[in-house]
Amino acid sequence: MSSVRGAIRQGAYILAEAGVDSPTPDAKELMESIVGEIFTAPATLSPAQEREFFTLVGKRASRIPLQYLTGKMYFRRRTLKAAEGVFIVRPETEMVAESAIAAAREVARPLGYREGAVRVVDLCAGSGAIAGAVADEIPGAKVWAVEMDPKAYALAKENLQGLQVELVCADATSAETMRNLDGSIDVVVSNPPYVPEGDVAQAEALCDPPSALYGGGSNGLEIPCQIIDRAARLLRDGGVLVMEHAPSQGADLCAHARKMGYVQPCIMKDLTGRDRYLFARRPKMGDMNVYPASEAAQPLQEAAQKGELVVIPTDTVYGIGADPRNAQAVSKLLAAKGRTGQMPPPVLVSALEDWKLVAASMSPKMMALARAFWPGALTLILPAGKNLGWDTEAKGGTVAVRVPGLAQTRELLKLTGPLAVTSANLHGDDPAQNVSDAQGYFGEEVAIYVDEGPTPGPVPSTIVSQRGEEMVILRQGVIPEEELARVWESA
């Protein structure tokens, strides 16, 4: 007869030789499935126990999932039943559940966690792991779980016993499923099938049912996109969607969520630093259109072309802008800022050669400064072009032009063309260094807000004009006067 500890060591060796990632913990868990808690079990195995143990070790070495062999899996603070033919919940999904639980708590806490204070739906519930965690951790939560696979539904029914979860056997992507709940749900959470074709690398994952793995299409996006669509109908105004996905799918799912009208969809990472889940919110009264710079190109271009106001990041602070060649757009900009007619806005262009789009000419000396300090914190006062949307003669016949130092801003300007941009704040208030500040100042007056995170701060650009052959520094900024003079004199 083998000792318990000796059998575990031998089993771990066999598993290690087979390439199992966690041989010793797996061997211990297999042993405990036979003898119970190791520390309280007899020191030796009976012949029958020994045969059973090494039979399980052999199956595990052939990469049958540990959970299928023990009939158990663990998720957050609960022990769940596992069964062959039902998707095995992964550790990374605990972060998805945590995010959904946190969003649900935000709703339930102000209401004292009273019965039904928060309503949560788990789409593609599988074994019921996420739905069970929500019901277990949020007192009074009303939870629905939707699963169409018969085996998974039966297992979820066992795992959800004793919890306030209504389990529904239906297609989670169908508009008919729980139609009566449309517009009433606070949080939708989902770990849908999402794996792209041919992407399963882990041998154990091949034991999961294909219907729980593959998301449809070569990129695996069909079912996740359908979940986004269904959640959009289920959620109330301001409701939240949390959905797991493959690391390669974040950008596409963000774009689809935005297309479906979600506000500020973002991709959250798991503990390994990989893109893991989508977090998106349905719009509510007062929401503004906020786009990360990576997704802002088309809506920003459309808004600028329509003469709308936009907010963009610059290399100093956030700026509010409009098409400088559109008189109505410029009027909107000046009205939003409360600027007088004596204060025309400066114009940002994407590259040095684009000065021609808004200015009539540039002297050789001013060109030398532009070549030396653009892109960057240098604003040049140039003779105004005739196509600007304000009375240039009444404003001294000049226009302030700059190529911003921030690469993302220049990329956006390539699409919009020149933008008349001034700091995104009201007169006398601090300049906006993030999108939230800008929203507080302008609200729905602005069509598009581009979010690139916090800006460095209100470090002013240097403003230079020319009088005859003389350089005139109208405002001292970050560029030293000596450097400007050196370039000017050498031109």
From TrEMBL:
Residue ranges of coiled coil: none
Positions of the YrdC-like domain: 294-479
Biological process terms in GO annotation: methylation
Catalytic activity reported: L-glutaminyl-[peptide chain release factor] + S-adenosyl-L-methionine = N(5)-methyl-L-glutaminyl-[peptide chain release factor] + S-adenosyl-L-homocysteine + H(+)
Highest taxon of the lineage: Bacteria
Keywords, sorted A to Z: Methyltransferase, S-adenosyl-L-methionine, Transferase
InterPro entries attached to this UniProt entry: DHBP_synth_RibB-like_a/b_dom, DNA_methylase_N6_adenine_CS, HemK-like, N5-glutamine_MTase, PrmC_N, RF_methyltr_PrmC, SAM-dependent_MTases_sf, Small_mtfrase_dom
Entry keyword Methyltransferase: yes
Protein EC: 2.1.1.297
Top class in the EC scheme: transferase
Molecular-function annotations in GO: double-stranded RNA binding; peptide chain release factor N(5)-glutamine methyltransferase activity
Protein's name in the database: peptide chain release factor N(5)-glutamine methyltransferase
Species this protein is from: Winkia neuii BV029A5
